[in-house]
């Protein structure tokens, strides 16, 4: 089902591109038109009507349902196969097509019939346990299959409607009409927007896209819609102007069908903004959002960040696949998001050794103003992912450098955010009021905050915004030095401010990258924790100061 | 209205690009298949593939019709006005493309 959905999505993306380009070609032709204004108006009107049909949105809905239910059913199937193909035979038992499990009959050994009966009882109990798990999974699979069939049948009605009335015969609802007429706005709250969106027809969704071509940036819309709308906007903007930022977004997406454009905004900020998810965050059981730090730009950084996100996803999913049979997390999926969704400070480059900040550049990061503004956007992004997610989700907020400050502030924004774990690294502080107090105010359960501070990381030792998390109670300190992880791979250590997510000399993620992947996977016991003497000499000296800006 | 010489290159270009878009859309189709013999999903997926193919043909057909009208009426503004307006009328009045 997931493969079918992927194929349908590819066809639909091509359709969207062709329709938008045709619309633009008509505009281009009519812009140089010398003759009748009426002819130009008729051509534009016809082209606009063809582009505004709801076929694209109808196909998105079908693909989304196939993807969502397909992933859910695949999860049940994987769990079932683990029990039926490994656990049950491993215990010497048999299972029939209806899920009934039979324990072997214990032969009566001499006169000791009591022992025999006891052993038989234990085996029968184990068989009953297997059977219960199998039947539960079979029921869940059947329920998901029934829900999928129901949803797809409704979608097919929309497809049939398109064949009969491609221009869309259903009247636009009053709520959408009011938005199109400028008398109302879409809900700003991600959950409310999601609920509203789910009640719209494909034609209404497409009408809203025609009304606001930045619709894909709205937190709370399903990821498939965000991706579709933002890809159409990217194509449109690339056709209108050359831009390093837009080219970088195109590069980050090119050749990878599992990447989704969650955000594209070249207009509203001091710098271009974009976010790319590797994997579908609405269907993955584990989702992460990484907020970057100093000097990050879409044009200069996005493809690299997305490449790192791809490696995190691969490593996390490999470890989840290798969990023992019967582990509830075995085979779970991961989506990792590179988020450049707010303006960031720019200091000028670090030096070649990556251990020194230009003092002039340092002054640019002395303020937390950008972090506070960005935190609001980031919290909304988290909330949008929570609103659009199908089923249960484990979410990790990841922040590097100035992005860690933004992440920490986002998790102290009012409201209940869907984030389970926070991991910050290379952090100059989290704006906590008391530099040595336990971390408070985060919307996280105790024991779910992690930090990494690498050897000779000058930014992490600044304590620029209150104490760095290396010194805050409540954070679990993860290892940054070289080690061999439980998959048997040697991993280089990280040094300086930038190496944390990057591969080491052997092409493998460093210890720090492994740790990120394990927290993102929801496997904290697989991460490597730091020893008690984890602070280096720079840290001990710098941490003796009260804070440079604080 | 008379001479359209100044707009002829534009019309010829528009006709050719619209025909190319029509070709691209009509070629679309889902080739993946779902094999779940005991599940209703398999039959539904076949209906999706068929419905999508018909829809691609409908939309592609509309762009082809627009391209043809552009080419056929290139010598008359009135002819173009009428051709586009007629097609829009058929489209919005739910008359399938010929």
| CATH architecture level-2 label of the domain at 240-542 in chain A | 3-Layer(aba) Sandwich
> What is the global morphology of chain B?
elongated
Number of spatially distinct domains of chain B:
1
Q: Can you tell me the residue ranges of chain B where pLDDT is under 50 for at least 5 consecutive residues?
A: none
Order of helices and strands of chain A: HHHEEHHHHHHEEEHEHHEHEEEEEHH
- Biggest interface and residues each: A-B, 52 and 48 residues
Q: Largest beta sheet of chain B, briefly?
A: none
Number of strands of chain B: 0
Distance between the termini of chain A: 54 Å
The unreliable regions of chain A are none
Structural description of this entry:
The complex is a heterodimer of chains A (550) and B (98). Chain A is of the alpha/beta class and 550 residues long. Helix content of chain A is 48%, strand content 9%. Chain A has a domain at 240-542: Rossmann fold (3-Layer(aba) Sandwich). Chain A is built from 15 helices and twelve strands. Chain A is flat and about 105 Å long. Chain B has one domain (5-92). Chain B is built from three helices and no strands. Chain B has helices at 8-26, 40-72, 77-92. Chains A and B meet through helix 1, helix 2, helix 3 and helix 4 of A and helix 1, helix 2 and helix 3 of B.
What are the SSEs and their pairings?
The complex is a heterodimer of chains A (550) and B (98).
Chain A: H1 2-31, H2 37-51, H3 55-90, E1 94-95, E2 101-102, H4 113-164, H5 174-180, H6 190-198, H7 202-211, H8 223-240, H9 244-253, E3 259-265, E4 273-278, E5 286-291, H10 298-321, E6 334-340, H11 359-364, H12 369-388, E7 394-400, H13 402-410, E8 421-425, E9 449-452, E10 476-477, E11 483-484, E12 490-491, H14 511-520, H15 537-542
Parallel strand pairs in A: 5-6, 5-7, 7-8, 8-9, 9-10
Antiparallel strand pairs in A: 1-2, 3-4, 4-6, 11-12
Helix pairs in contact in A: 1-2, 1-3, 1-8, 3-4, 3-7, 6-12, 9-10, 10-14, 12-13
Chain B: H1 8-26, H2 40-72, H3 77-92
Helix pairs in contact in B: 1-2, 2-3
């Amino acid at each position: 089902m997931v493969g079918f959905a992927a194929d349908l999505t590819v066809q639909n993306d091509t359709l969207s591109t062709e329709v938008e380009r045709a619309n633009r070609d008509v505009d281009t032709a009519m812009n140089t038109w010398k003759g009748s204004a009426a002819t130009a108006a008729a051509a534009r009107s016809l082209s606009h009507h063809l582009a505004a049909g709801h076929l694209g949105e109808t196909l998105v809905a079908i693909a989304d349902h196939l993807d969502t239910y397909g992933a859910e059913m695949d999860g049940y199937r994987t769990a079932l196969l683990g029990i039926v193909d490994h656990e049950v035979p491993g215990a010497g038992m048999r299972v029939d097509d209806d899920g009934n499990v039979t324990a072997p009959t214990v032969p009566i050994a001499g006169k000791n019939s009591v022992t025999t009966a006891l052993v038989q009882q234990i085996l029968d109990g184990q068989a009953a346990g297997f059977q219960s798990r199998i039947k539960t999974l079979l029921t869940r699979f059947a329920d998901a299959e029934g829900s999928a069939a129901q949803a797809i049948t409704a979608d097919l009605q929309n497809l049939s409607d398109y064949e009969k009335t491609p221009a869309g015969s259903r009247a636009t609802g009053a709520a959408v009409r009011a938005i199109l007429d400028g008398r109302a706005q879409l809900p700003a709250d991600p959950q409310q927007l999601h609920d509203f969106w789910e009640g719209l027809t494909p034609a209404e969704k497409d009408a809203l896209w025609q009304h606001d071509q930045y619709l894909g940036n709205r937190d709370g819309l399903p990821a498939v819609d965000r991706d579709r709308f933002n890809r159409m906007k990217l194509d449109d903007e690339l056709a209108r102007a050359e831009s390093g930022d837009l080219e970088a977004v195109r590069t980050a997406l090119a050749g990878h069908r599992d990447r989704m454009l969650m955000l594209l905004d070249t207009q509203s900020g001091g710098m271009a903004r974009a976010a790319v998810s590797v994997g579908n965050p609405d269907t993955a059981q584990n989702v992460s959002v990484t907020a970057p730090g100093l000097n990050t730009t879409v044009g200069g950084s996005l493809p690299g960040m997305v490449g790192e996100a791809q490696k995190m996803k691969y490593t996390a999913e490999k470890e989840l696949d290798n969990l023992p049979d019967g582990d509830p997390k075995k085979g779970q999926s991961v989506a990792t998001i590179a988020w450049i969704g707010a303006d960031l400070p720019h200091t000028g480059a670090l030096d070649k050794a990556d251990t020194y900040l230009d003092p002039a550049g340092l002054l640019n990061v002395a303020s937390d103003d950008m972090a506070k503004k960005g935190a609001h956007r980031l919290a909304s992004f988290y909330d949008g992912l929570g609103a659009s997610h199908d089923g249960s989700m484990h979410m990790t907020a990841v922040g590097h450098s100035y992005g860690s400050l933004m992440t920490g502030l986002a998790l102290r924004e009012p409201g209940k955010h869907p984030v389970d774990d926070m991991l910050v690294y290379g952090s100059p502080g989290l704006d906590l009021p008391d530099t040595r107090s336990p971390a408070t105010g985060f919307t996280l359960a105790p024991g779910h905050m992690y930090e990494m501070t690498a050897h000779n990381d000058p930014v992490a030792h600044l304590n620029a915004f209150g104490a760095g998390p290396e010194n805050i109670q409540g954070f679990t300190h993860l290892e940054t030095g070289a080690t061999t992880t439980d998959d048997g791979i040697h991993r280089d250590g990280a040094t300086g401010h930038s190496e944390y997510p990057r591969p080491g000399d052997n092409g493998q993620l460093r210890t720090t990258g492994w740790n990120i992947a394990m927290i993102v996977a929801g496997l904290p016991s697989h991460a490597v924790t730091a020893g008690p003497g984890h602070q280096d000499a720079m840290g001990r000296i710098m941490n003796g100061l009260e804070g440079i800006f604080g | 209205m008379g001479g359209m010489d100044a707009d002829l290159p534009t019309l010829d270009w528009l006709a050719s690009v619209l025909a190319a878009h029509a070709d691209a859309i009509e070629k679309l189709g889902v080739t993946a298949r779902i094999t779940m013999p005991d599940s209703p999903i398999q039959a539904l997926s076949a209906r999706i593939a068929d419905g999508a193919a018909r829809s691609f043909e409908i939309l592609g057909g509309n762009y082809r019709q627009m391209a043809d009208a552009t080419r056929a009426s290139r010598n008359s503004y009135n002819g173009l006005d009428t051709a586009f307006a007629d097609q829009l009328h058929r489209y919005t009045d739910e008359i399938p493309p010929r």
